[in-house]
Amino acid sequence: MEFCFTEEEGEFKREVQDFLRQEVTEEVVEETVETGGAYGAALARKLVQKLGSRGWLLPHWPKEYGGLGSSVTMDFIILDEMAYSGLPWSFVGAYMAGPIILRQGSEEMKKEFLPRIAKGEIEFALGYTEPDAGSDLASLNVSAEDKGDFFLVNGQKTFSSHCHLAEYHWLAVRTDFDTKKHRGISMMIVDLRSEGITINPMITMAGYRTNEVFYDNVRVPRKNLVGEKNRGFYYLMEALDFERMFPIGFYRKLFEGIVEYAKETVIHGKPLSKNSLVRQKLAQIATELEVVKILYYQLPYMLEKRMLPNYQSSMQKIFASELAQRITNTGMEILGPYAQLKKGAKWAPMAGKAEYAYRRSVVETIYAGTSEIQRNIIAQRGLGLPRS
Questions:
Q1: Using 50, 70 and 90 to split pLDDT, how confident is the model at 3?
Q2: Phi, psi at residue 218, to the nearest 5°?
Q3: In the chain, how many domains are there?
Q4: Is residue 304 flagged as an active site residue?
Q5: Which of 243, 288, 355, 364 is catalytic?
């Protein structure tokens, strides 16, 4: 298949690249490394809000909600270019919660949240995982007791990575304990400044922060309930389809750095790039990057046709996340023992970028559903295979 953008999309891509070349600084890239690619820290906010002021954060959204009313492909272009430039690419409000608010939220909710999301003024954090509910999200037990005008929320969430940067929690709660597990879940938007919320840091092996979040009799206004009560599991599954759309730009840039290293590094009188094994490994990765590009841009094509890429997003996510790990593994092999040195070490090749990416890539096949979960989805929804 030969993939190409429309003339308008190609021009948009060039404009975005020019803008990012002018605006992205070493400081904002370093800030992004420290947050693990999450959006919400100070420098990135300023830059992303410049994108939002142009309607570039979510170009396909209607103009009334801060977009340009253009193609969904433009959203995917901007996200991948941001990842390539070292900017945040994990936007919960824009690319996970926002699409569900747009599809399922009340008109009041859309007007309150969508324009601010599109401008980059607010960010959300995912509130799914609990100590006893990860891959099986139907088992979540954070409770939300219906008090009429508000819900009273109690319980614990974990691995809520954006909570120390975000304004709102995109929270999955149990509102009915007396029905089938998946039918008793609701989705709501919680102001993280609410009384009764405690956020504690958890530091990952990649060095950036995620969080555990405790709710102690937190009052959430009824107007913050997303869609219908007890229909939250279906909204959650829909949001996961959007979360699994994985831009590969960060690892594409890393791969380009590995290729340059191989060209410039001379071993036993000849560049590493002349080594047949190195060439084979790099050629394999280059081929797979072309494959993942097709899988990635298939998703906006389907969204344009008003189809929800269900198992297709799982296909793209599993291929992209496992490719990310193959890129980092290949980089560590080519760079050799010095690849283990972190940024700041005297002899660290590529300024320690390969070492950081190697640690960071571990989580890619875990969040948004493990690779095992993705394979189950592809088998059942894509191939029609039985559950057991």
A1: confident
A2: -85, 125
A3: 3
A4: no
A5: 243
